[in-house]
Amino acid sequence: MVMTWKERYLCAARHQMPDVVPITPETFFYIPARVSGLRCQEVAPVGLTLPFHKRKTWEAQLQCAQYFDMCGWIMPAVGTISPNVNTETRMTSQPDGSLITTLVHSTALGALQEQYWFPVDDASWHTEHCVKDPVRDWPRYFELFFSDPWAADLSEVEEAYARTGGQGIVSIYVGSPFTDWLCSARHGGYETVIYELLDNPGWFKPLQARYAEHIAEKTRMLCERAPFDELFMGNEFSELPLLNPRLWREWDLPILEDFCAVAKAYGRPTHWHQHGSVTPILPDFARSGLTILCPLERAPGGDADLAEVKRLYGDRLCLKGNVETNLLLNGTPEQVALQVMECIQAAGSSGGYILGTGDQVARDTPFENIHALVEAGLRYGRYG
After folding, report:
1. How far apart are CA 262 and CA 220, in angstroms?
2. What's the CATH number for 5-81+147-380?
3. 181 Cβ partners below 8 Å, 6+ apart?
């Protein structure tokens, strides 16, 4: 029986063997923007749609999956409703055509300001974060962030699920690890967050508990109200070795465990994206109840030996990723095909593997190399 891409992906997530290994390179933003024919500036990042945006990320992702005939990783946004917060948007054009967008959030406790930079043909950057003065701004940020999950607007999720069909999986972003979440709010970067965690853990412990409960409640709401195929959490900052394993276990692992526990109670698959090295914390992922772990980066960006990870943890984790994005960017189609074959031989023999990349496929990657990845996956990834 010929399966759809969605069926293949979910079959692999259950540690079963579909008719062919699911093929899901991480074409999150750059390649979908190119396929759409729009400038990066005109494609909205997940959860932030402004007047100059002409297409949402999930729509471009679906078009990309159809173009390459592969399993789409479709990520619509959950609309957040904060009735006690008013947001003013200010946009300033720069001489080079880029746009600076300033968001001013007025809360009952005072205003917060954050800023994004939208280059003409590159992904946006969060250049100013809300929390500058911790004493003054954290309470204001709580007013902004900790809205009622049950009041969320799910219209974008519902539309994406209806339109995706069997072309891919609808993956709902639930949130970040705790230290990552702190970085998204705290101006000053990851270094500032780590120093503050080390200097004042007693203040952050109650906040960690509050954040964990918020993620758990949002997960419950989604499981009861939203149509989707998997629930997703991922990091941007909190990767090894930037964060050592002891701090990861203290601050981020509890979020993973609570997230997985709630989803598992509803019988729904979970997907965690861990940049950088993973070997020291793989036992934690295996014990957590997590369904899918990605992107399993090779050296030098990571330390994943795919065959060894499969041998040790393949019975508990569905593995996704490991194709080098640098090879896709700079290699030949023949080299890409060879590495795809190696990945499938390392992890695909008994199911439970999703062919993917070690990170987001780079903006200038030749389309012929993406076609080569898909064709090689179909050639070498067939079961039976």
Report:
1. 7
2. 3.20.20.210
3. 175, 211
